[in-house]
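Question: Hello, beginner here. Any chance you could explain the protein record under this note? Any guidance would be welcome.
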Amino acid sequence: MRKTRAAEDSKSHLVAMRRWLHQHPELSFHECETARYIANELERLGIPYEYGGEGSAVIARLQTDPAGPGVALRAEMDALPGHETTGAPYASVNEGAMHACGHGAHIAMVLAAAASLASSPPRGNVVFVFQPAEESGGGARTAISEGALQGVDSIFAGHVTHEYETGKIMVAEGVVTSQSDRFVFEITGKGGHGARPHEAIDAVVIAGFLITAVQTLVSREVNPLHPSVVTIGSVHAGSAPNVIAEEAILAGSIRTTTEEIREHIHRGLRRMADAIGELHNAEVSVVIDEGYPPVINDPGATGLARTAAGLVVGPQGLVKMEHPSMGSEDFAYFLQKIPGSFVRFGARRSGWEPIPLHSPSFDIDEDVLPIGAEYFDRVARIALEHQGVR
């Protein structure tokens, strides 16, 4: 089917928005220029919004029936720390930050959906939530505290990915991302000379025991049918080759998809700290910090999302999830409050080598932008119609 001039203009504006946002990334809770850009676009569309300044969400409301049903569309404003290596003409100009997770694309999609919804408003209320700090800090909680879910019955979000080619949308109910937690082991032994190990308690040796032992929590204590990962990502110990280290610090992350397994791994980490400390006559402690909960898509909302996605990409474009992602997403906090659904937009052009999210070379096929924009438009209308007849 031949594209209309209006469709071409819409695509051009989508690309321009996404490229500006990609070129001007800002880190979590510092998304000032990004928020200003969004606010300017909302003003152009005549959609009222609220913004509390740096660290806050931009929350816009399109209301045709204040007493009617409400639906929210969510996008994230923040970028990741890092140096972009895409070589694109719209690459980051902000040193030390880049949109390695595609959040600029999500903003552009939701803004384009806002333009479509404003030009032909559905009956009910649409809230556009542009939240801070998805990558670090759980900015969804900030948006919620600022009233993002006031008058909202359901919420929808999506994420670009190279896991699927452009033209595919992954829709699945239930658990779609994992729970994330972090932990730190602190080991205190007794320092000494490398030539006289019998006078010392070697924190490095103890760290080695812990690194090995921790791996058995998943490989030998967790049912392999329940995805889970324990990773030690950093090890700090020692000052010289001939000095036995007195202290060592190990830091890592935990990814789980059920609360039962999560609690088992937490108990296991504490058990191992106590046991290995006792074994080596050292002090070993572990601190576990709770991270984002798992994203659990509501079945009813996911049915609406599947209908909307099918209208955009056709039945052949719908993709099922083979297994939950072991990544995490703070969209989970919204889903703890109201029903909703989180989908994934294929953003890899045919023939491209897949590049993972958070890579300094991550970029998207911009043909995904109108797909995502139309999805957000359709899912908002479908959800409002569904909620209005219940």
